[in-house]
Amino acid sequence: MRHGDRVKKLGRKKEHRIALLRNLCRSLFILEKIRTTLPKAKEAKKMAEHLIEFAKRNDLAARRRIYRQIQDHKLVKVICDEIGPRFSERHGGYTRIYRLGPRLGDGAEMAILELVEQSNPDTITIRRKLIERRHLVEAQTKKKAKKEKKPKEKKVKEKDTQAAAKKEKKEKKVSKKKVAKKKAKKIKQERKAKKKTKEKKGKKKRKK
User: Fold this and answer.
1) DSSP-assigned letter for residue 95
2) Is 4 left (phi over 0), alpha (psi -120 to 50) or beta?
3) DSSP letters of 25-50?
4) Which CATH number fits domain 14-119: 3.40.50.1000, 3.90.1030.10, 3.30.420.40, 3.90.950.10?
5) Domain segments of the chain as ranges
6) What does pLDDT average to in each consecutive run of 10 residues of the chain (208 residues)?
7) How far apart are CA 113 and CA 42, in angstroms?
8) Contact call for residues 64 and 76 (beta carbons, < 8 A)
């Protein structure tokens, strides 16, 4: 006897499974049509229809219940204002599943999960831009601005200071070497002069 089979595990633990179903429902409400494996589609269908039931009520409590599963205020507004009223005359059966057959790689059975009543493709693209792309563009622009402005100026300043310090060190070394060479030349000249004076004095003594 198989106990504990009310919930399809989908090869995942509870937290991972819930996150997977929430993401599937999120993409379903944005695109109104998704392609996934058959067991995932069946489980996501249950959650999606449950959320559409709350969207048909369209009160504060219902919006909060939807926000528990889909944590995006803009998408919750779209679900309650656009998708919910579309199914006001229906009592269930808000989504449908089409079977596509086995996948080529691993043989998993694929399916399409979609809403029964869909909106125009233009509205779907606008919705996708509003919900998905805006945050990505903002994050990318912020990262680019941070990378381009602040660190580059600092690097340039640091490079300039390092180059100036290296030049000063080289100049100091060169000056020290020159001073040492001059001192050595003077010492040699003094020694030669002393030797010459000694030789002259010796010659004079011999002559006397």
Assistant:
1) E
2) left
3) HHHHHHHSEEEEEHHHHHHHHHHHHH
4) 3.90.1030.10
5) 14-119
6) 85 94 94 94 95 94 94 93 92 94 94 93 89 64 68 57 77 75 84 82 68
7) 8
8) no
How far, in Å, are 147, 160, 164, 169, 197 from residue 156 at the CA level?
13, 6, 12, 20, 62
Beta bridge partners of 168: none
Alpha-carbon gap, residue 165 to 190, rounded angstroms: 38
Q: Cα(82)–Cα(79) distance, rounded to whole angstroms?
A: 6
Q: Report CA dihedral (193, 197, 202, 204) to the nearest 10 degrees.
A: 140
CA dihedral 79, 85, 87, 88 (to 10 degrees): 140
Query: Dihedral through CA 23, CA 25, CA 27, CA 29, nearest 10?
Result: -150
Report the pLDDT value the prediction gives residue 6, as an integer from 0 to 100.
83
The amino acid that residue 19 corresponds to is A
